[in-house]
Structures are given as C-alpha cells and as structure tokens.
Design goal:
Blueprint lengths: L10 H12 L7 E4 L6 H6 L5 E4 L4 H12 L6 H9 L7 H6 L12 H14 L6 H18 L13
Parallel strand pairs: 1-2
Helix pairs in contact: 3-7, 6-7
Length: 161
C-alpha cells in the first residue's frame, strides 16, 4: 500500500538490529508493532516470531493487520472478487465526497472508481458473518482503492493533473 508512513524500507535494518540484540532465533519471541499502519513490519516478522501485538488507532490498520496477520486462506477468493467486480457503480459516500462529478470540488478518485468503491463497500457488508472473508474483502478493497487513487500517498492533497 502506498503509505507515507510505511516502514517497508526499514525492514532489513529492523531485522538486523532486532536479531543483533535478541539473537537470530525469534521463534520464541513476541513482536510489538506500536504504530502498525499498513502492517508491513508485522507481516515481515510473521513467520519468524511466536506472537505479534499490532497496534494502531486507525480502523483501516485493524482491517489490514487482521487480514495480513490473522486471516486464513480464502478458498475460491477469485469467485468472490469476480462477483464483486460485476456490481453496478453506485453514487455513495466516496463518490459524493471525493469525486469531481459530485460537485464537491475534490478529485481523489475518478467518478467511476469512486462509484465502484461505493458499490463494493456496501456489498462487502453482506459477508460480515464470515470474519476471515469479510476482512479479506475489505483489505482487498482498501489496497485496490489505494492503487487507483489520484493522490501521492497522502489524502490531504490530490493530483490536479
């Protein structure tokens, strides 16, 4: 995910430093990621440590980290994605507040992408009973929306051209 606070480039440094202090074998260790954000640190250590504490105040972080750290394999995930991709666009919250066509004066997303995000977000609620599937689909939407956003990694500004 294109994220201004991402620690992705720090992973080699973090691994080297942590292993230099506590040893190479992390299998009996816990990792605490206090500002988890998109979860890049937790995912980098997921297969090496015994337990991960992932903390962040933002709900998007909870979604991404639940899916990335606790989520189980979703069988037939392509079927769910295909079904959702066939939804008709909808003029909802994202379109109304973040797309030029709504008259709000913002162009964070193209009109069509904003409408697709709205349709997908509403439809994903139908899967809430299956926690793993729900967070997988929601995390997939967050990652996908980030890929089509007209921003340079921060939503306080947008690319005007």
């Amino acid at each position: 995910m294109n994220y201004i606070g991402s620690k992705a480039k720090l992973i080699p440094f973090l691994k080297e430093t942590i292993k230099g202090v506590v040893g190479e074998d992390l299998s009996q260790k816990s990792l605490c990621d206090l500002f988890a954000g998109s979860g890049v640190v937790g995912r980098a250590f997921k297969d090496e440590v015994d337990f991960i504490i992932s903390n962040d105040i933002e709900y998007y972080s909870y979604v991404l980290n639940y899916n990335g750290l606790l989520g189980k394999t979703i069988h037939h995930s392509c079927d769910y994605i295909q079904t959702l991709n066939e939804l008709k666009p909808l003029e909802g919250l994202i379109y109304q507040h973040y797309c030029e066509g709504s008259g709000c004066g913002r162009v964070y997303f193209s009109d069509l992408n904003g409408q697709k995000i709205d349709a997908l977000r509403q439809a994903i609620e139908l899967y809430k009973e299956d926690k793993n599937l729900y967070y997988f689909l929601l995390a997939s939407l967050l990652e996908s929306a980030d890929k089509v956003a007209n921003t340079a990694s921060v939503y306080s500004s947008f690319l005007k051209t």
